[in-house]
UniProtKB/TrEMBL annotation:
UniProt xrefs under PANTHER family: HEAT-INDUCIBLE TRANSCRIPTION REPRESSOR HRCA
Protein keywords: Coiled coil, Repressor, Stress response, Transcription, Transcription regulation
Parts of the chain that traverse the membrane: none
Record flagged with keyword Transferase: no
Coiled-coil boundaries: 159-186
GO biological process: negative regulation of DNA-templated transcription
Name this polypeptide is given: Heat-inducible transcription repressor
Upper taxonomic lineage: Bacteria, Pseudomonadati, Campylobacterota, Epsilonproteobacteria, Campylobacterales
One term of GO molecular function: DNA binding
Domain of life: Bacteria
Length: 262
């Protein structure tokens, strides 16, 4: 099978940068690669890849690094989310989060369904989710509306409350979800990614709604940053894990390390 030198060299640049986090030159890359390619040939491809916008040079005399766009395509191709990841030791996860420089949040997702709306003397409305509840100020229109959607999941109710402008309900749902956070570490990275009011959203479980797929890049995150969302079993409980950080963090190795620790 013929080896595509362009793809091979680009992937080697990416993997080298993920490993050492330093720009790499043609001679060093040639030493690292399993396939024997002359440094002069590698330099030709460096030029081609630079012209394509796949790699860039931070300094005139320095080596090359992959661009943000290249890393986005790389992670979209490499990361697979087929089944929940089993996490049995939060101490190990805590170490890995800081070791890889990532922000991480895990929250419970056991399906909550609105089973009943109780009217307490026209003063309060109690929304019963079987094991969890939300208390609202009484409003006859809200009571009628909620009784018409008995059986709706908490997730769908969250979306509906945003669509119809029920701010108190949405606030209470957010509070309920926050109480279901099992793990949250390295918020410093979150502050590095968002330097405006968006920082509040990434610290809440409702941030998962921003993800259209398991991966999110710009414009959800600033250029150079990304996030991933995946199902996990956290200490025996069904949950969702959101991790975020630089596009140059080794997410594949991070996830593999979690699986190996299980």
């Amino acid at each position: 099978m013929k080896v595509d030198k362009r793809d091979l060299i680009l992937e080697s640049i990416i993997q080298a940068y993920l490993e050492v986090n330093e720009p790499i030159g043609s001679s060093e890359l040639g030493i690292r690669m399993n396939v024997s390619i002359p440094a002069s040939t590698i330099r030709v491809y460096f030029k081609k890849l630079s012209d394509e916008g796949a790699i860039t040079q931070l300094h005139i005399s320095g080596g090359r690094i992959p661009t943000f766009a290249t890393m986005k395509l790389y992670w979209q191709d490499r990361l697979k989310f087929n089944s929940p990841i089993n996490i049995i030791n939060s101490d190990v996860l805590n170490f890995l989060v800081y070791d890889f420089g990532l922000y991480c949040m895990i929250f419970g997702v056991s399906k909550l369904v609105l089973s009943e709306v109780l009217n307490v003397e026209n003063r309060f409305l109690i929304l019963d989710f079987v094991g969890e509840s939300i208390v609202l100020k009484y409003n006859p229109k809200v009571e009628k509306f909620l009784n018409n959607i008995i059986g709706i999941s908490l997730e769908d109710l969250d979306k509906v409350s945003m669509q119809v402008g029920l701010s108190e309900l949405r606030s209470k749902i957010k509070e309920l979800k926050r109480n279901r956070i099992y793990f949250q570490e390295n918020e410093k990275v979150a502050f590095e990614m968002f330097k405006d009011d968006r920082i509040k959203s990434i610290l809440e479980p409702s941030f998962e709604h921003i993800f259209r797929t398991n991966l999110a890049f710009n414009p959800v995150f600033e250029p150079g940053f990304m996030g991933l969302k995946t199902d996990v079993i956290f200490e025996g409980k069904s949950a969702v894990m959101i991790c975020a950080g630089s596009v140059y963090s080794d997410y594949e190795k991070f996830l593999t390390s979690i699986k190996e620790a299980a």
